[in-house]
Structures are given as structure tokens and as C-alpha cells.
């Protein structure tokens, strides 16, 4: 059964001819009412036009009514022309929906440095309302690029309000704000100031804790839209549920990393601060050496010691503890263990390392994936 959006949200998805493959590549979500919202965009100094425009709208604080996504062209490194094309997309979608262009967010993903085929984009936008009624699954599929599967998650609150999240991302994943695309839609009534205050920490513990290859995209963004159609909801319950949805999406992104065969989870405890715990976990997840060892089912815990040591997190080597799939391998000194048994335990869909830094009581968790030859193949042939 198709996943439905919360009350008041409607989606549309179509193939506008932006992708050479002919797959769906243009999609949008509209709201029956103004939305309070929160946004996080890449800190890359070469950010795409969609990120810079959305960031400007965020600073203005105006309500949002719609989101338009092009998944065939990044429209990044395209200069003034690209900025105008991005604005024209918002103008066109606002016109067919009869809402102000300033109430329309835009998102683009695909190859960097190519101008948008605006004839196809504008023609598609003109006909996009004919497709309204698509479910969340169709929208999640339409925003994919190298993803192998759509990514969705949902939660229902005690008030009856729902949160539905969608995301895309498989490569160029090492965010410094959000990750790839992550969109959450809810009919809960949430105060904008409170939402914006809480959102950065939620993003940091979820999307900023994901890495596939160490490369931050020009187009990364995370957005949550709240149209209030289900009425008032307890704020703390909502924020907890929103973080749960985004954590689910973050793990799905890591598991679907380009060429990945397994999910890598690193759980860090005993840190001086949450920031240091996250830094240690994320550094482990991005290490090509550790990722390669995970791919080969090699319990080479020295890769963990190396990554933690360069992460910037405080460590007491005499109290440092490391386990691989629950098997203790280091506790201030190397521990005896059965290589074959631990290697066999790593032949799983998820490989978990736990690390206690021995210097505090803060925790953090990050997610990544193994590094396979398929990752190289995908990116060696990306544009050719």
C-alpha cells in the first residue's frame, strides 16, 4: 500500500525529460495551508542556486506552501543564468498553484555544471498539477538519482498528527548541515520559532552523522514543513518523533551508499562531549581503510584506533575499549579473540563497532557503509 502524506499535503511526480533515462525527474508537494518550517542547507562555498535561494527565504521567515524538486540536473556552478533559472522554476510552479513564488521552495540534484533544460522544466511544471494525488512513495522515487531504492519513514503522534519523511542520497555523502535531500511533512501545528531552535541539533545527530564517501554536495538540504491541519501537538513529543523519522532516513541513506553491501554503525561512549563523540564516530565511518576492512569482513581494530586518534576527540588510551559485532577486541591493550569467529560475525547486513573513549559520559552515533569496487565503478562512469 502506498504511503500517504499527512492531511493537507498533496504530491505530484512525472517524467519531464530532464533525465536521459526517461524516469520520473520532476516532482512537487503542495500544502492546503501555509506551513511553518525549518531548513538546513550545505555550508559548501559552491552551494547551488536552490540552496542559496531557500536560505534567503528562510531568513525572511515567510510561510511556505510548496516544494518543487528537479532530480535530473544539479543546476550548480551555473552562474547568474542558473540563479535565474532556479527563480523561474519557483515562479512557474507558484503560478500554476496560484501562490506567491516566495512561498515555493526549490531543490535540484544531478550532474554539476550543466544548465537546466528550461524548455522541458517549464513544460513539465505546467503539467505537474495534472499529476497531483501521487503518494509519498512516488515522490520519494522521483527525487532519486543514483539511489537504488526510495527512502521513506513515518511516525504518528498521540494527537493523531503524522510525520512523513522522504530522502534521497547515495553518493557525495558527507554533510556539513543536512544530507543530500531530506524532506519531512507533518500536519501537526508547531510554532516556527520553537521548531527552528530545535532543528539544528536534530540535524546534527541524524543527517550530520551520515557519511558514505567524505564528499559534501553542493545541493544538500533538509526541510521540515508543518501545515497545522491536525491541530496542536505536544512540542517535545513532536521533536522526539521528528528526530526518530530523520534517524531512520539517515540510516537508510547510509545503507544505500553507492556500491554498499552493508551498513556500518559506530557507537561512541565515554566522550567529553556529544560533539567529540560524533566526531569520533563519523571519522571511523568515513575512513577508507576501515570501510575496506568492513567490506572484507576483516576485524582489523587498528583501523578504529587510527580513526579515533585523528578525529580530534579526547581519548584515554589506557581506558579505551573497542568491540566488533559485540566481540571485545581492545581494552587498554589488545585482547585475545577468535579471528575467524569475529570475521564470520561481520558477514551481516549491519556491522557495529562500539567504542568507549574513557574520558567522559557523552555519547554519539554515526552511520556509513563499506567501500567496494562497485563504488569506484559507479563514479568512474558517472558522466560518460
TrEMBL record:
Recorded superkingdom: Bacteria
Site residues (Involved in the stabilization of negative charge on the oxyanion by the formation of the oxyanion hole), renumbered to this chain: 109-110
Annotated site residue numbers, Cleavage: 178-179
EC code(s) of this entry: 2.3.1.35, 2.3.1.1
Single GO molecular function: L-glutamate N-acetyltransferase activity, acting on acetyl-L-ornithine as donor
Chief place where the protein resides: cytoplasm
Coiled coil: none
Keyword Cytoplasm annotated: yes
Family assignment from sequence similarity: Belongs to the ArgJ family.
Subunit architecture: Heterotetramer of two alpha and two beta chains.
Protein name: Arginine biosynthesis bifunctional protein ArgJ
Organism: Deinococcus grandis
Encoding gene, per UniProt annotation: argJ
